[in-house]
């Protein structure tokens, strides 16, 4: 009955429109009070849920992403990618996906990259004759790779909740699957463009932009992932310290190289990043109440054991989890999903002796698919608003992109080495 009250109360609050962090805390607090577990434990539980060193990286990576967005890095990356690929049918969707992958190596947030790349690419794609719904679908799907390509806020949260998987190991493990997912999206995006005659082919006499000139303008943006990941690999700084280095690097590029940042813009960026970070960390802190209640009441083990005892084997369980998490990812962001479900999922992974780093990559890929799967895809909400279209209009196009990402996910499931080779080679 207590378990029903806990989960039933949480879903009832969600349906009533209560923010997810408050719904988690209220459901947990009610159960703690009813069960007599000690209501005065709530303040300590909230504090300990947030007082974790790796979480310090989140506000700094959010700040870094916003700084690079305002600095014009995305625009310069687009020009460089167009110079390399050239102007042909399907070029702009491919450029959008590649640029989103690079931006993922800076910010680690899908909605943030959706906004940054969407602001640059939407107008260009519309001018070339790409439909609004197609444009929103491609950019929203491309931005979903950002929670796989390091630095990733989702990986940081996963590491906090699963100490056996370190942040450097997860960052390294997400690199190849993230690139694989991006390349998988390029294929249907280009195919749909050519099949439907979207985009223009370069006109006769039209000169191709100088690759060298575009490269010189984009080099500072291209170097950002190298500075962040290379510094961590060289042992110069930890992932948390890397977030600070990345923010300083972004300010340097914006003020002294591109000269696009002003003090007023920096103030606005600080305010916006503080608001976004506060939302994420408040959800983390309040979810600690829910997690403490579930752990103290002992409701996790029966649920995990019930899933294991379904008699469908480890691959059947994995398929079930994939289907469930993709659906959940349509409605909840990755951070909230991890906070709610990881206490149940990790015991299942341990039962089947799955590598927890590989398991983290698999879970994150599932959530990435949910970020651009209608009806409540967070990335598509952003890109549809920018493109001036509706979520319903994207269904025709986004289905092929979802299929491509599923194939990339299947490859990582069947061949775990795609995720585990790099961290093992680096000694993580």
UniProtKB/TrEMBL annotation:
Subcellular location: Cell inner membrane
Keyword Transmembrane: yes
Pfam families in the cross-refs: DctM
Major subcellular site: membrane
One GO CC term on file: plasma membrane
Keywords tagged on the record: Cell inner membrane, Cell membrane, Membrane, Transmembrane, Transmembrane helix, Transport
Entry function: Part of the tripartite ATP-independent periplasmic (TRAP) transport system.
Matching InterPro entries: DctM, TRAP_DctM
Membrane-spanning intervals of the chain: 51-68, 138-161, 167-191, 218-236, 242-261, 273-295, 315-344, 356-377, 397-422
A GO molecular function held by the record: transmembrane transporter activity
S-adenosyl-L-methionine recorded as keyword: no
Subunit: The complex comprises the extracytoplasmic solute receptor protein and the two transmembrane proteins.
Name the UniProt record assigns to this protein: TRAP transporter large permease protein
Domain TRAP C4-dicarboxylate transport system permease DctM subunit: 7-417
Annotated family: Belongs to the TRAP transporter large permease family.
Membrane topology (UniProt): Multi-pass membrane protein
Taxonomic lineage: Bacteria, Pseudomonadati, Pseudomonadota, Alphaproteobacteria, Rhodospirillales
């Amino acid at each position: 009955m207590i378990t029903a009250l806990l989960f039933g109360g949480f879903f009832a609050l969600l349906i009533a429109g209560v923010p997810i962090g408050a719904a988690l805390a209220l459901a947990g607090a009610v159960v703690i009070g009813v069960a007599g577990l000690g209501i005065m434990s709530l303040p300590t539980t909230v504090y300990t849920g947030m007082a974790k060193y790796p979480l310090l990286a989140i506000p700094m990576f959010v700040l870094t992403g916003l700084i690079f967005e305002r600095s014009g890095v995305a625009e310069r990356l687009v020009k460089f990618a167009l110079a390399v690929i050239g102007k042909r049918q399907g070029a702009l969707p491919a450029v959008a996906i590649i640029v989103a992958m690079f931006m993922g190596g800076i910010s680690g947030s899908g909605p943030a990259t959706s906004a940054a790349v969407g602001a640059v690419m939407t107008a260009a794609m519309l001018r070339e004759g790409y439909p609004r719904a197609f444009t929103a679908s491609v950019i929203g799907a491309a931005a979903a790779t950002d929670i796989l390509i390091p630095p990733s806020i989702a990986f940081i949260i996963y590491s906090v909740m699963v100490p056996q998987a370190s942040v450097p190991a997860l960052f390294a493990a997400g690199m190849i699957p993230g690139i694989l997912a991006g390349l998988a999206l390029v294929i249907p995006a280009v195919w749909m463009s050519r099949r439907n005659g979207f985009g223009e082919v370069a006109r006769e006499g039209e000169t191709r932009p100088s690759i060298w000139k575009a490269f010189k303008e984009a080099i500072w943006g291209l170097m950002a992932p190298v500075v962040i990941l290379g510094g961590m690999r060289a042992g110069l700084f930890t992932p948390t310290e890397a977030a600070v280095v990345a923010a300083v690097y972004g300010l340097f590029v914006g003020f002294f190289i591109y000269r696009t940042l002003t003090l007023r813009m920096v103030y606005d960026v600080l305010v916006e990043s503080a608001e976004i970070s506060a939302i994420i960390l408040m959800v983390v802190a309040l979810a600690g109440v829910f997690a403490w209640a579930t752990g103290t009441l002992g409701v996790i083990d029966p649920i995990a054991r019930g899933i294991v005892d379904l008699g469908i084997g480890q691959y059947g369980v994995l398929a079930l989890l994939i289907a469930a998490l993709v659906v959940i990812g349509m409605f909840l962001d990755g951070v909230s999903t991890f906070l709610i479900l990881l206490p149940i999922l990790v015991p299942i992974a341990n039962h089947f002796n799955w590598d927890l780093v590989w398991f983290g990559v698999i879970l994150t890929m599932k959530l990435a698919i949910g970020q651009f799967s209608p009806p409540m895809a967070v990335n598509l909400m952003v890109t549809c608003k920018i493109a001036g279209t509706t979520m319903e209009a994207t269904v025709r196009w986004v289905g092929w992109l979802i299929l491509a990402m599923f194939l990339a996910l299947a490859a990582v499931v069947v061949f775990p080495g795609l995720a585990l080779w790099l961290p093992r080679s680096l000694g993580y």
